[in-house]
């Protein structure tokens, strides 16, 4: 699979087995992963170190609290460059108006390969992860 060495990823997934699978898949590809099952946990992580996170992967329908859309909007207030992947078992087109700009929707169930490829496409190759944009001359 593709190398995500150095990428910092926050996963918000309330389903235990799915969360464990996602964490394992990204760690096996070199990413540093934080995983929480709740919106509250995500907000705490984002408030402390949101500027250091490259990618947010969030389930849209969290069991308790707010939605993945709310978590993504909060993430963008902490880091306007954070890439976002929404996961859902529901139809993504109906949810598009609630999404942050340039987010990616992936329907569950999803293969690890498809998710890793989407992550690399959104955050770029490892050499560009966590680097500030170059200034124009």
TrEMBL record:
Which Gene3D superfamilies does the record associate with it? Answer: 3.40.50.2300
Query: Which keywords accompany this UniProt record?
Result: Phosphoprotein
* Annotated source species: Allosphingosinicella deserti
Question: Which InterPro entries does this UniProt record tie to the protein?
Answer: Bact_response_regulator (IPR050595), CheY-like_superfamily (IPR011006), Sig_transdc_resp-reg_receiver (IPR001789)
Phosphoprotein listed as a keyword: yes
* PANTHER family the record matches: STRESS RESPONSE REGULATOR PROTEIN 1 (PTHR44591), TWO-COMPONENT RESPONSE REGULATOR (PTHR44591:SF21)
Identify the domain of life: Bacteria
* Domain Response regulatory intervals: 8-123
What protein does this entry describe?
A: Response regulatory domain-containing protein
Enumerate the SUPFAM superfamilies for this protein. Answer: CheY-like
Pfam families the record matches: Response_reg (PF00072)
Q: Which residues are reported to carry the modification 4-aspartylphosphate?
A: 59
Q: Which GO terms describe its biological process?
A: phosphorelay signal transduction system
Q: What is the lineage of its organism?
A: Bacteria, Pseudomonadati, Pseudomonadota, Alphaproteobacteria, Sphingomonadales
């Amino acid at each position: 699979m593709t190398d995500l060495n150095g990428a910092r990823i926050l996963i918000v997934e309330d389903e235990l087995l799915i969360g464990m699978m996602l964490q394992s898949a990204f760690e096996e590809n070199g990413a540093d992963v934080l995983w929480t099952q709740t919106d509250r946990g995500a907000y705490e992580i984002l408030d402390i170190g949101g500027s250091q996170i490259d990618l947010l992967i969030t389930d849209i329908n969290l069991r308790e609290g707010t939605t993945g859309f709310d978590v993504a909007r909060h993430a963008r207030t902490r880091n306007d460059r954070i890439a976002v992947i929404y996961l859902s078992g529901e139809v993504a087109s109906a949810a598009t108006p609630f999404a942050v700009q340039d987010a990616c929707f992936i329907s569950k169930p999803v293969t690890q390969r498809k998710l890793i490829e989407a992550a690399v496409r959104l955050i770029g190759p490892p050499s560009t992860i966590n680097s500030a944009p170059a200034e124009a001359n």
